[in-house]
């Protein structure tokens, strides 16, 4: 008689009631709190930074036209920094999510599917 490896059992498909219960659980609330503590301040920072750039471009022409090096002016540098800050914030979020959000979300998913808890 040969032994054949059995595939792992399919994960439990949670019901709507189970999702609602999990949403009210302390683990899920902690996950939401962790996400909000990171996302809200960074979003506010970026929106303020972007608004300052737009307002400077609209009302501080002489300041934005200040030559820094050759034909490079402050407006161009600040505009490029908008792109840089977007990439930096994205990298910060990915790192934060990998360290702080993903392990908690994985534990919640495993609990919902009846798998091993972390």
From TrEMBL:
Organism domain of life: Bacteria
Q: Which InterPro entries match?
A: DUF485
Tell me the first and last residues of the signal peptide: none
What name does the UniProt record give this protein? Clumping factor B
Membrane-spanning residues: 38-60, 72-94
Which organism does this record belong to?
Answer: Gordonia lacunae
The alphabetical list of record keywords is: Membrane, Transmembrane, Transmembrane helix
The answer to whether keyword Protein transport applies is no
């Amino acid at each position: 008689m040969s032994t054949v490896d059995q595939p792992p059992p399919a994960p439990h498909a949670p019901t709507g009631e189970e999702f609602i219960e999990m949403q009210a659980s302390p683990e899920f609330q902690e996950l939401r709190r962790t996400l909000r503590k990171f996302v809200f301040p960074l979003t506010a920072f970026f929106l303020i930074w972007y608004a300052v750039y737009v307002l400077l471009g609209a009302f501080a022409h002489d300041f934005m036209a200040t030559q820094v090096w050759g034909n490079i002016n402050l407006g161009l540098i600040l505009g490029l920094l908008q792109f840089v800050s977007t990439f930096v914030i994205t990298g910060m979020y990915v790192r934060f999510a990998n360290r702080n959000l993903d392990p908690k979300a994985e534990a919640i998913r495993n609990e919902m599917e009846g798998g091993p808890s972390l």
